[in-house]
Amino acid sequence: MVQPVKTKKDSKKKLGKVDFALFFIIMLLVSFGVIMVYSASSYSAFFSANYNYDSYFFLKKQGMWAILGTAGMIFSMQIDYHKYKKHIPWVLVVIFTMLGAVFAFPEINGAHRWIGFGGASIQPSEIAKYAIVVFIAIAIDKKGDGIKKFSTGILPILLVVALFAGIILIEPNMSIACVICFVTMIMLFVGGIPLKYFGALGATGVVAIVAGILLEPFRVKRLFNFVNPWADASGVGYQLVQSLIALGSGGIFGVGLGQSRQKCFYIPEAHNDFIFAIIGEELGLIGCAAVIILYVLFIIRGIRVAVRAKDTYGSLLAIGITSVVAVQAIINIAVVSGSMPVTGVPLPFISYGGSALVFNMFAMGILLNISRNTEKKSML
């Protein structure tokens, strides 16, 4: 693991320019997301009393969250990412308390994931995944070569991650719990843990995922249905079947923006986790490829920021933040295309969701701040 040395002289240097390419990619994804949320939701909102028969209902809300998220990103972009170090202990305590508080609120779709206040709600797990990233980056940076020791280096980190992933799993929200675990593995690998421990943790993770599936009957049904969703096309396989129909109907060029038929009450809440299917139907293979390319470019720029960071903490933080978006995008696209069992992971920056969008963009501000504190000379 490369550990750049940061001196006091370096910390006093004037901040460099923001990675404009990364900023542009983020804003392009967010803007495209607002457009697609409107396209995917306008029909169901117009014909539903729940949304006051207003086709612009979700557009107005997502637009508002996008503006708030952009403001949050610009704000966090100005804050030196080193300042989060002294605040992370109490932040973790507050977030863990919030994760416990969700059980005091009514279930939504069979899960306790939100804290409601007034007409809005917040999903603490969306904050937790980034707080864990900051914690791991700080821990690995502080331990240095000590991270290679299991009992004093790796184990303490795993215990904290398990605590947060565990309570999120109980909500239940296995998808976000898995995202946190995947990102933890990536950060530990980049942080320099021995391969023997990495392999053991990977095997343990697979066993844990299998156990998590087997302990819940509905997850078992999803797993078996994934092999042949058409066997129960009107039951457990309904959502995936409708998604595949949408993607197939789009062909190469799509049926046209706003012309989706699957959003007309075929795909449930098409503006959420399965919005990529609507993108495929309306914009075709070309539209899907364009979205995937944007995520690939985001990952490349995120890695570039990590490689050029002036200290180990900045490198790990950039890797962690980039990994959260990358893992969620890969899982979402894999689920929608039938490449893995159905699970509820939103498509970053594009799926409808206020708290997810705001916290994602705040985290992007941190990533952009790291890009302002990078070495000018780099191979990337």
Automatic annotation (TrEMBL):
Entry's family note: Belongs to the SEDS family. FtsW subfamily.
Pathway the protein acts in: Cell wall biogenesis; peptidoglycan biosynthesis
NCBIfam families the record matches: ftsW (TIGR02614), spoVE (TIGR02615)
Pfam families according to UniProt: FTSW_RODA_SPOVE (PF01098)
GO MF annotation list: lipid-linked peptidoglycan transporter activity; peptidoglycan glycosyltransferase activity
PANTHER family assigned: CELL CYCLE PROTEIN, PEPTIDOGLYCAN GLYCOSYLTRANSFERASE FTSW-RELATED
Gene Ontology CC: cell division site; plasma membrane
Subcellular location: Cell membrane
Keyword Transferase: yes
Topology within the bilayer: Multi-pass membrane protein
Keywords: Cell cycle, Cell division, Cell membrane, Cell shape, Cell wall biogenesis/degradation, Glycosyltransferase, Membrane, Peptidoglycan synthesis, Transferase, Transmembrane, Transmembrane helix
Role played: Peptidoglycan polymerase that is essential for cell division.
Enzyme type, top EC level: transferase
Domain of life: Bacteria
The reaction(s) this protein catalyses: [GlcNAc-(1->4)-Mur2Ac(oyl-L-Ala-gamma-D-Glu-L-Lys-D-Ala-D-Ala)](n)-di-trans,octa-cis-undecaprenyl diphosphate + beta-D-GlcNAc-(1->4)-Mur2Ac(oyl-L-Ala-gamma-D-Glu-L-Lys-D-Ala-D-Ala)-di-trans,octa-cis-undecaprenyl diphosphate = [GlcNAc-(1->4)-Mur2Ac(oyl-L-Ala-gamma-D-Glu-L-Lys-D-Ala-D-Ala)](n+1)-di-trans,octa-cis-undecaprenyl diphosphate + di-trans,octa-cis-undecaprenyl diphosphate + H(+)
GO biological process, one term: cell division
This protein's record includes keyword Transmembrane helix: yes
Protein name in UniProt: Probable peptidoglycan glycosyltransferase FtsW
E.C. numbers: 2.4.99.28
Membrane spanning stretches: 20-43, 63-81, 88-108, 150-168, 174-190, 197-215, 274-300, 312-337, 349-370
